[in-house]
Design goal:
The protein has 317 residues and is α/β, with parallel strands linked by helices. The chain has a single domain, classed as Alpha/Beta hydrolase fold, catalytic domain (Rossmann fold, 3-Layer(aba) Sandwich). The chain is 30% helix and 19% strand. It is built from 8 helices and 9 strands. A 9-stranded mixed beta sheet has the order 1-2-3-5-4-6-7-8-9, with helices on both faces. Strand 8, helix 7 and strand 9 form a beta-alpha-beta unit. Helix 3 packs across helix 6. Pfam families: Hydrolase_4. This is Alpha/beta hydrolase. Keywords: Hydrolase. InterPro entries: AB_hydrolase_fold, Hydrolase_4, MAG_DAG_Lipase. It comes from Nocardioides caeni.
């Protein structure tokens, strides 16, 4: 392990994974210990066009007696290599390898037997599928921050015909670019050199996002179908999202007080598909990454996490 780009006390550990069609593959486990020895930990997994830089969120957990970890998945953030197509996988189950490896390090090596898994957006979909498949005994709870449970946009995009066409193109031409327009409003609303308050590396979380390929989107839609068929995550689940979605054409107030990435109605609709014990909370004024919202909704989200943690996670252990 080496000192992470976030600086002390953060450490980064490269996890070597099986090579794929592009060559060598790695993931990166980022960690910081709490002040006292603890058996509790939290692992946070980022979303699409994203990586782990959530130090305030991690500090919040550390102050409450949890060792904090973040995982940069393959081809994201610290784990991107020059020979790779950023963010690309052909099957969401590919991510299970690094989740397994990170979990083994956090539990068996580092001695944690109560671990909360926290995940944002695409990471929320991936981690829901992983928790359902693996059911690790150390999983104390699952927090899903604006998880990507369905394809946003016009209804025809979710039709059987459109889904079949995407599946066919994604299978035959997986590296073909999927046409889309990205305004850049969301990333600009977050970054401190633009109109936000957060510091992050624009190489790893670019303003205009990363390109989307048909093969990757096919994997996402297949993941959506599995989730919507119903999962059985055995731990308590907390789903956080904004109270509304908007599609602003310019940098209006809506950019800073709503989800402009996903449809929160879809998140609410599919939340109970994750497992038998799900709590859904709509946070007024939150943005897509709820814990990167402005101060008031962000701290409202922290209060909701603490209430859920006390009621369903710590009380049952």
């Amino acid at each position: 392990m080496v000192t992470d780009v976030l600086g002390e006390p953060w450490l980064a550990e490269t996890i070597d994974l099986r090579a794929d069609f592009e060559g060598d593959v790695v993931a990166t486990l980022i960690s910081r210990p709490s002040a006292a020895t603890t058996s509790r930990a939290v692992l946070h997994v980022h979303g699409f066009s994203d990586y782990f830089f959530h130090t305030e969120y991690a500090d919040w957990w550390a102050e409450r007696g949890h060792d904090a970890y973040g995982l940069d998945l393959r081809k994201y953030g610290r784990s991107i290599r020059s020979h790779q197509s950023a963010t690309y996988v052909a099957d969401l189950d590919e991510y299970f390898e690094e989740l397994d490896a990170a979990w083994e390090r956090i539990t068996r090596r580092d001695g944690h037997d109560q671990v909360v898994l926290s995940a944002h957006s695409t990471g929320g979909l991936v981690c829901s599928l992983w928790a359902h498949a693996r059911r690790p005994p150390e999983l104390a709870g699952l927090i899903l921050n604006s998880p990507w449970f369905d394809l946003q946009g016009k209804a025809w995009m979710r039709s059987p015909a459109a889904t079949a066409l995407l599946d066919q193109v994604g299978r035959r031409q997986p590296m073909r670019m999927f046409p889309r327009e990205v305004s850049g409003h969301y990333a600009r609303s977050l970054h401190r050199e633009h109109e936000g308050e957060w510091e992050f590396d624009l190489r790893w979380k670019p303003i205009e996002s990363f390109p989307v390929r048909f093969g990757w989107l096919r994997a996402i839609r297949r993941g959506h179908a599995r989730l919507q068929a119903g999962l059985d995550v055995p731990a308590p689940v907390l789903v956080l999202a904004s109270d509304r979605s908007t599609t602003p054409a310019s940098m209006t107030d809506d950019v800073f007080s709503s989800d402009i990435v996903l449809d929160v109605g879809q998140i609410r609709r599919w939340a109970t598909a994750v497992g038998p014990h799900v709590t859904f909370v709509a946070v007024p004024g939150a943005v897509h990454d709820v814990v990167l919202s402005c101060s008031e909704p962000r701290h409202r989200a922290y209060r909701e996490i603490l209430l859920w943690l006390d009621a369903y996670v710590l009380a049952s252990r």
